[in-house]
Amino acid sequence: MFWCVVDDDRYPIVELDNVGQRRGMRDPFHVPALAGLAVVIGLLALVVVAIRSGRTANIGVAVAVAVIGTIAVTFLPTALGRVLRRPYEIWGEYQGTPVYLFGTFDREQFGQVSRALVRAREGLEETT
């Protein structure tokens, strides 16, 4: 018999119904990601202030503003991605009750676990 083990719970795969995948909810209070995003936005704000106030007339300040602006713009997608990311999840029903089977932020790991679960369920269908 094949089992799906989640934490300390064990579910016989043959008794799992409506197994499906979905994206989980975003964590609105992920502090490290929010801190990184705040730093990037703060750096961009400083760049804008420096340019608008005319402080970039000095070549040293202009180079510093350009470097800081480039770094901030480069890391903005990464910072946003960490704030906005959602986990990949597998859910199912066990004896009529929804159960959380697996979750991760890693797409490759999620695909591996998902395929393993599909193969296990297909193996049960072939033996019955």
Structural overview:
The radius of gyration is 24 Å and the shape is rod-shaped. The mean pLDDT is 83. Helices cover 54% and strands 24% of the residues. The protein has a 3-stranded antiparallel β-sheet. The protein has a two-stranded antiparallel sheet with strand order 1-2. The longest helix is centred in the middle third of the chain and has 26 residues, at 59-84. The protein has 3 helices and 5 strands; from the N terminus they run βββααββα. The chain folds into 2 domains: 3-25 and 86-127, no CATH class; 31-84, no CATH class. The chain has helices at residues 31-52, 59-84, 107-127, and strands at 3-6, 9-12, 16-23, 88-94, 97-104.
Please tell me what the overall shape is.
rod-shaped
- Radius of gyration computed on alpha carbons: 24 Å
Give the count of helical stretches.
3
Helix content: 40-55%
- Main sheet: strands, sense, barrel: 3 strands, antiparallel
Keywords:
128 residues; alpha+beta; 2 domains; three-stranded antiparallel sheet; two-stranded antiparallel ribbon; 54% helix; 24% strand; rod-shaped
Give a short summary of the structure.
This protein is of the alpha+beta class. Helices cover 54% and strands 24% of the residues. The protein is rod-shaped.
Layout of SSEs?
Blueprint lengths: L2 E4 L2 E4 L3 E8 L7 H22 L6 H26 L3 E7 L2 E8 L2 H21 L1
Antiparallel strand pairs: 1-2, 3-4, 4-5
